[in-house]
Every structure is written in C-alpha cells, then in structure tokens.
Specification:
The complex is a heterodimer of chains A (256) and B (354).
Chain A: E1 4-8, E2 10-14, E3 17-23, E4 28-29, E5 33-37, H1 44-51, E6 60-63, E7 75-78, H2 90-99, H3 108-120, H4 136-148, E8 154-158, H5 166-183, E9 186-190, H6 194-200, E10 203-208, E11 211-217, H7 218-221, H8 224-231, E12 233-239, E13 245-252
Helix pairs in contact in A: 2-3, 2-4
Chain B: H1 12-43, H2 51-58, H3 66-100, H4 113-127, H5 139-160, H6 166-190, H7 193-204, H8 212-231, H9 233-239, H10 243-248, H11 253-275, H12 281-293, H13 297-321, H14 330-348
Helix pairs in contact in B: 1-3, 1-13, 2-3, 3-8, 3-11, 3-12, 3-13, 4-5, 4-6, 4-7, 4-11, 5-6, 5-11, 8-11, 12-13, 12-14, 13-14
Classes of the chains: A alpha/beta (256), B mainly alpha (354).
Amino acid sequence: MVATLQLTDVGVRYGKQEVLSGVTTPVLKGGEVTAVIGPNAAGKSSLFRRIAGLLDGPGVISIDDGTLQPSPGHVCYMPQDTSVNTVLTVYESILLARKQGAGRKVTDEDLEEVDGVLHSLQIEAISFKGLHELSGGQRQLVSLAQVLVRDPKILLLDEPTSALDLHRQVEVLALIRSLAKERGICVILAIHDLNQVLRVADRVMVIDAGTMVTCGPVETVITATLLQNIYKVEGRIEQCSRLCPHVIIDGPLGRA
Amino acid sequence: MAHSPAIAAPKGRGAYRVLVQRKKLVLLALSVVLALSVIADLGLGPARYTMREVVLALMGSPDVSLQISVVIWDIRMPVALMAVVVGAALSAAGAQMQTILNNPLASPFTLGISAAASFGASIALVFGVGILPWAIDYVVSINALLMAMAAALFIHFMSQKRGVTVETIVLLGITLVFTFNALLALVQYLASEQALSAVVFWTMGSLTRATWPKLAITTIVLAVSLPLFMRRAWALTALRLGEDKAASFGVNVRWLRLETMMIISLLAAVPVAFVGTIGFIGLVGPHIARMLVGEDQRYFLPASVLSGAAILSLTSVVSKSIVPGTIFPIGIITALVGVPFLFSLIMSSRRRSW
C-alpha cells in the first residue's frame, strides 16, 4: 500500500506566537514529489518540523487516512545542513540512523542496507571518514543517506541539494524521484531552484510570510505572476527547444 | 573509523566489521592494563611484600602469615578496588556530560560539581552541620553528595534554557567553580585549626578513606548506571549528530538529557563524597576513549569506563611509588600526571575534532 499524507489547516506555534498557519493540502500520495517553495524565513522549515512531530500547533496531519500517527518510524525528516563536530564516521552515522528505535544488535540486514544506500548515493569512498572531515556537499549526501536508510513512508527533505554541485544536484534529485516512484514514498522537499522544481516535482506548495499561498500542480503554480508576487522578480516561463518549461528571470521587479 | 588511515579503500560491511573487531581488541587491551595495574597496586604499600606473598594472600593460601593477609585484604584491597570504581564512575560521568552538553570541556571537575561537593563536605567537617541530620555516620559524604547533585541539576536546567550555547555552559560551570571555591575559602577561614586540616586533606582527595561499605555503594551506583546508559547507546550516540537530527530520529532529546543528567550527578557525586576531589579523570578518561574507539557509545562508554579506571589505578600505583613508604593524596597526583598526559594527547592528535 502506498503511503498518503494530508494536511488540514496545519499551523505552528512557538509559545503564543504563531509562525505558520492555514496549511491545507489535497491527499499527497506515495510516489509523488511535492516541492515546498517560498522566500527565506517564510515558514518552510517550521512546516517540516511540524509534520515530523517536532513542533506543536493546530491542525490535523493525517497519514494513511489517519490510521497512522505521525512518528519518526514512518516520517523521516532531514533537517537543513548543520556542521557537526564528531569523530563518528559516515558509516557509523548511517548505521546509527538505521538503528534508531530498532533492536540494539546490528544485523547483517542492517549492514546490507547501509551498503546499499552508500552505493546508491555513490559515497562509498568516504564511508570511513569522520563526519567532521567532510565538505558541506558531502555532509548533505550523508544526511540524505541517513534518512533513506530508514526506509521511510513519508520523506521530508529540507533543502537537500543546497550545498551540492550541479552534477550532484541533478543526480540526487533524479534519485529522490525514482525512489519515490519505486518504493511509493511520499516526498516533500524544500528547494529554491524553480527550474529544478519543474523537473522533479509533481506538485508545488507555496509558503509566504507564515501562510500557505497555494498548493497545486507544478505548471499551474509556477507562473510569471508567482515570480512577481512571491519573489518580487520579473520573469517568464518559456519552453525550451525540447519543449520543457523553463523559468527565465529578467530582473528585479520594476527594473526589467 | 577515522583513526585507521591504513584502510584506504574500505569495502562497506567487511571494513566495518574489521573496525568493530579492532575496537573490541582495544577494550580487551584496556582491561588487561587495568588488571595489571590493580595487581601492582595491591603489591605496593608501606609494608613491602614480594609478589609471591601478594598472590598467595590473594588466593587465600595458608602459607602466608595472617598479617600479610589482613594487610592485603582489609587495607589494600578496598583502596585498590576503590581506585577502579571511582575512576570508572568519574570517567563515565565525564563521558556522558560531554555527550549531552555537546562540550569537550564538560567534566564533574570543570563544571563545578566537585567544587560543590567539597563545599558540602567542608560544612560538615567544620560546623558539624548535616543537610540530612539523621545520617550521622555519613554526614560528610551525604553533604558532599547533595551539594554535588544540586550543582549538576543546576547546570542541567540552565542548559535547557533557550539560547544557551556550549560556551555559556562552560562559563556557567566556571562561575560555579569560583562560587563554591569562594564559599569553601570562607568556611576554611572560619574553621578551627583542627577542622581546617581536615578540610584541606579532604579536598585533596584520597583513596585511603576507602572502606568496604563505601566501595559497595560506589559499585552499586556504577552497576545500576552503566546498563541504563548502555540501553540508550544508540540514542546517546545520535545526540552527537546534533539535537535536531537526534530528534528527527525519534529521540526524545529533553527526556534523554534529563534522565542522563540525573544518573551523571549520582555517578559524579558519590565518588567525590567518599574519596574527596579527584580531578581530571572525568575529563581525560573520555578523551582517551574517544581517540581510541571513536564515539559510538557501544564502545565509547566501556572504553571511557576502562580508561578512567586504569588511569586512577595507575595513579594510585604512582602515588605509592614516588616516596617509598608514603602514600601521597591521589587528588594531587591525578592533576599533576593527568594534565601533561592530556596535553601530549591533544598535541599529538592530528584530528581537529574532539
């Protein structure tokens, strides 16, 4: 059975301060990729943390038609990149992610999973490096490995490609998309590059100033009007010679 | 493991298994060092016995005189074993403090827990005031214990406040050290000459205060705490990836921290209450463990325990060997031996990370 996720009027409160409100989505199905876009500090990370169960707030988060409670067992959340100062190795850290909430003993299956994830992200070469020795991009790939190894039903990725080079970005997003399709994972990812959104996502959610502006199919949401209203830039969406839509930015609003 | 540049092209699980084997060997080696040190510790003392006599006495052989048996079993044995359990407890406490506070400088000594214990003990020694009035026999120890726990919990609750960083916690610990040292100085100033010497001797830390009951209590605390830590080994290791990530793995970070801090305060306070201030074990033990086996708690915690125990036991040997026939207070030796040792480790370690 593929996982489903639906948000109804979900918000986030820090104490009495409301930082996010009114997030409502249609039923997001396993296999689909939903991109969350919006300016910095719009509330994207808060939304992710709310869905992951790390923050409180109003609204209903319904997983598999409400039969499952949001829990780290099936909702896997990859926070934004933070540097760590630990001598844990890449391999140990991925195994560690795998063993959370599971039995203490490391089984052959656990190690096989870790090997598999390292292989699919092509980071076997850094398996036994310490986390503190990694570059920003490598850290991000390792973080991604840490969520993938947990066999998620719902995958929340907060800017998973922000530190990656172009080649890795394209590769990682393709991998995320194919994993979503193959394993029926419901993926939600925050990402800034709208052209990447056009390639990877089935659906886009726009968040601005603590509220959800819209949530719908990519081609209907990413428009010149969106660029103007949300990002304050002049731009257009045009088809390239291969008939793929592309976002072209002309300049800041009013100066183009 | 970053500590093995020899394995340049590791092949996943095979390489991982090799590294795990190596970690187990390190634990075994530490155990051997500890065992040898304990035997040496038993053999040394103001009365000189041959190794053969010591071994025979240990085996309960009727060939050795009763006097040797008594010295070995009733005088040296509690001291030697106390060195082991105190070293183990302080090192485990330091290891977990460093883990949950995410701070390489955290230890019972540097965060003021030992200073608090000294102050508590000094009140009892100078004024005869017990915080719990009915426990007359253990009044010094109980005062020290309660003050130490209060300091540990204070550190914990302050570290929970919003916006408190790693640096603030260290500063907070330093303020505690100064506060309790000032209070201790005040008590010493007001003390009679006799009480003063008792306080000074107490704060130096000495294993010669060990008795079988004290040894039993410390051992029980250790025996209860370590399995509790080990049961949470994966969660505690996850904390090293950052609070956010640990929480995203489903670790209840707040609860884990509180629970761990409670156990730490017992582990840190009980030894200090019984044998006085012994610094640096709680700092050096975990650092040695980290350099040897990394930060996977399944190996890091046992390695911390073993290295802490081995260091204190070895220090006990040293404290008896400097001037034959005299036992120096061990608190003096740990600092003098521990600091250069830690210094050399830091300077020789190429790794940037702690």
